[in-house]
Structures are given as C-alpha cells and as structure tokens.
Amino acid sequence: MPLTQFFPRPDNSARRSRCRICYGKNTMARASSMRFRPQIQTNNTRARKFGYPGRLYVRDVAHLLPVCVYCGSTEYLTLDHAIPLVRGGFNDWSNIVVACAPCNRKKGMLTATEFRRAIGLDCSCRAA
Q: Does domain 37-122 have CATH number 3.40.1350.10?
C-alpha cells in the first residue's frame, strides 16, 4: 500500500497512522453520534446525582440507528432508557435506545415492553 494513503501524525508518536478509508468510517460514525452528546452529558449528570450505576460515552451510541424504535420516525430523536433509571435500569449502552421526543414523553416511566403493549406494537405470537 503506498504511503500516500495514510495520514501522518503531526507529533510523530509511536501510534500508527490510519488509512483514508478507516479514517472516513470513524469520522462519519462519530459525527452521527455527536448529536447525542448533550443528552449523554445530561444522562450522566442525572445518574451520578441520584446514585444510579453506569456511564455513557459518545462511542457507546455510535452503533444506534437514527430511527425511533417505537414509531420509526427520524425527526426529533432523543436517547431513551429502555428500562427507566427509577425502575432499576442502568445508565449503560445496553439500556439505551433511540426514540423520538413524542414517544419518549409518552413512554414516561414505562419499560420498553410495557410501552409497546400500550401502543399496540407488542408481538403476542411468541410462544409462552
């Protein structure tokens, strides 16, 4: 691979340079998740204040699709705790989903499963 495909590091540290393809992928994923940064900071502050376990980072939400999990909307997206903190949920990447602001407000203190049942999206075809 020619050296022109790499971005040199200005400080010439021991870390390797990244190829343009990898650099582009990381930048795009990070840019799409940066819109949630203020919400992440608010969630971390609130969780720390009330003593809830866990901590969120921007890299934790980079894998989330920018679509509301309840209605499919792509506008007014927010981060939502699938299991609310006050009901024993963690402030952790495994408990975070993307929801639009109207769905997030309607959901309130319900768990994701309870909210889906309430709005008629629960699949009752699963074997008990």
A: no
